[in-house]
Amino acid sequence: MTAGPGPLPDPVPGPRRRPALSPRELEILRLWLRSESKTVAASELGISLGTINTHLIRIRAKYAAVGRPVSDKTGLLIRALQDGLVSLSEF
């Protein structure tokens, strides 16, 4: 019986720097990650799609500022999981 490959190396060496997200940014990020779309998330929060987009742009900018850029929903989900902002049990 052969052993499978070992764990993948961490793409972010050393301690991870977490961006300082506001409580509202965390709320929007979590809801959007669990939602089917930005439109659904906006509707559930009673805010506009533009407001959702603005918050997501700021969240991505904060991740980029700490050297951990992300460009899509999957990337934000991975970062949020890595940083303990969400857990798999929420999905």
Look at the helices and sheets and give the structural class: mainly alpha
Q: Total number of β-strand segments?
A: 0
Distance between the termini: 35 Å
Major sheet size, sense and barrel closure: none
Mean pLDDT equals 87
Work out the radius of gyration.
15 Å
The topology string of helices and strands comes to HHHH
Tally the helices: what do you get? 4
Describe the protein in words.
Helices cover 52% and strands 0% of the residues. The model has no long low-confidence stretch (mean pLDDT 87). It has 4 helices and no strands. The radius of gyration is 15 Å and the shape is globular. By secondary structure, it is mostly helical.
In short:
The protein is mostly helical and 91 residues long. It contains four helices and no strands. The termini are far apart.
Write the layout of secondary structure elements.
Elements: H1 23-34, H2 38-45, H3 49-65, H4 73-82
List keywords for this structure.
91 residues; mainly alpha; 4 helices; globular
